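Archive maintenance. Older records in this collection stored only the sequence; we are now back-filling the structure field for every entry so that each record is complete. The fields below show one back-filled record exactly as it appears after the update. Entries are processed alphabetically, and Probable alpha-L-glutamate ligase is next in the queue.

ARCHIVE ENTRY
Title: Probable alpha-L-glutamate ligase
Organism field: Cellulophaga baltica
Length field: 291
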Amino acid sequence: MKIVILSANQNLYSTKRLIEAGEKKGHEMVVVNHTKCDLVIEKKRPCIVYKGEEITDVDGVIPRIGASVTFYGTAVVRQFEMMKVFTATESQALVRSRDKLRSLQILSRAGLGLPKTVFSNYSKDVSGVIDKVGGAPLVIKLLEGTQGLGVVLADNRNSAESILEAFNGLQARVIVQEFIKEAKGADIRAFVVDGVVVGAMKRQGKEGEFRSNLHRGGTANIIELTDEEENAALKAAKCLGLGIAGVDMLQSSRGPLILEVNSSPGLEGIEIATGKNIAGHIIKYVERNAE
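Back-filled structure field:
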């Protein structure tokens, strides 16, 4: 089959691993930089032009679209969908998962556990917002942040108020979440492909750091999920409509709490921590669904 990987950088670990796993199965793997595609929209014959040539005869697409180019990246994915090409992540699901507030609303409606969260429209009543999540310590997250950037832990009420006032003054949209003390700076990433958890790791923030992101110096180890954790991860991916998802959860005294669901989860951390061929699972998923 001819499989296109939409990636702005073909030297990234995830992109290289997908190429390797696809070629091993005899597929023609083509990396296309979605930020350099031109979309031709006309009745009956939508097409995509890349480096001056029309992209044709594609059997499947694996989108690896960074948060900063979501708008254009999803338009490219949607164009492939209009061309009747199977895509491992649907455009609509991509848009949904990138909107943190909307994701949390969907997860909440599905009855999944979440840290208590407050979102306001630059509310002047910062004290009331703090009370609604149960007071300090609490976590403040920029809606646009990724890889743990724009996530702040406010230890006490005073710092929580000044951080919120500062973000509001900058007109930066934030969500305020309760701090789950018993998670001890660790979280779980469950990697879901086509309705199955194909790997899971526990990530621990470095000493004195509550963010467990590997980009922030955290460490990761393979973990066996409980049934409750596995079910939560599968349900979260399903209700957001994602065929491929990295579901981040906290272990709390009231069960797993979902932090966020990532639609372009990196392969490096999970493959190294688990020793599993996650890229191979993604290729098999495309094989099962592509024409």
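Update note: The first strand starts at residue 2 and ends at 6. Residues 70-82 form the longest helix (13 residues).
Entry marked complete.
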